[in-house]
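Re-run requested by the PI after the first attempt was lost when the workstation crashed. Everything re-entered from the original request form. Ligand of interest: uridine-5'-diphosphate.
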Amino acid sequence: MGAINLLGLAKRVKAKILQASTSEIYGDPMVQPQPEEYWGNVNPIGPRACYDEGKRCAETLFMSYYHQNNVKIKIARIFNTYGPRMSPQDGRVISNFIMQALTGEDLTVYGTGLQTRSFMFVDDLIEALILLMNTNDNFTGPLNIGNPIEISMLDLAKKIIRTTNSKSKIVYCHLPEDDPTQRKPDIKLAQETLNGWEPKIAFNKGLELTVNYFKELILKKQIE
Ligand code: UDP
C-alpha cells in the first residue's frame, strides 16, 4: 500500500522514485551468484513470505507504473548491509554478534553456521544509490547492490570474537525456517551502469567502525 501511495504521488508531481528492494526477492537461490535476470526461489507461504513477496510485488508495481504511466523509477536490490547506527535490537546477525561479543554473552549461530551471506558497508551502498538515481531515465533496474565477498556465519562469529578480543563462546541455535543457504550478488551490471562503482570498504575496516559504534553505544548506556 505504501508503494502504491508513493507511486501515485510520484506520478502526480513527476518525481523520480527509488525502490529499496532486496536480495530476499531471490529467496533461497538455486543460482550462485545471483544476477538480476534470476527470478528467484521463494516459498510463497513460508514465514519470510510477507517480506519476500511484498518486495516482489512492489517491484511489479514500480515496473507497471513505469510502463503504464511513465513514472521515472529505479529499483535497487540491496544485499545484506551493515555499519554504524544499526539497531542493536533488530536481530540481524552482525549487530547480534557484536553486541554479544562486547557484553560477554554467547554468540548465537543459527543452524550449522555454514550458510553464507555477503556483507556490504553502508557507505558503499549510499554511494551506489546516489549513482543509480543519476543514471539515464531509461535505466530502471532492477540493479543488484552488494559486496560479493561471501562469508559463512560460523567464520563471521569467529572473526567478531577475534576483532573484539572477546571471551564469548559460540552456541548453536535452531535455524529459522526457509533461511537461505547462500547469498552472493552478481554486481557486473552495477559496475557497468554506475561508472565502475564497486564496494571500497574492506570487511575488516567496516567491522572495526561498526564495533567502535556499538562500544560507544554500550558506554553511553552505562553512563545514563
Ligand atoms: N543468524 C545467526 N545468528 C543470529 C542472527 C542471524 O546465525 O544471531 C544467521 C541467520 O540465520 C542467517 C544469517 O545469520 O543465516 C543472516 O541473518 P540476518 O537476519 O542478518 O539477514 P538475512 O537472513 O535477512 O540475510
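Saved to the shared folder this time. The longest strand covers residues 16-22.
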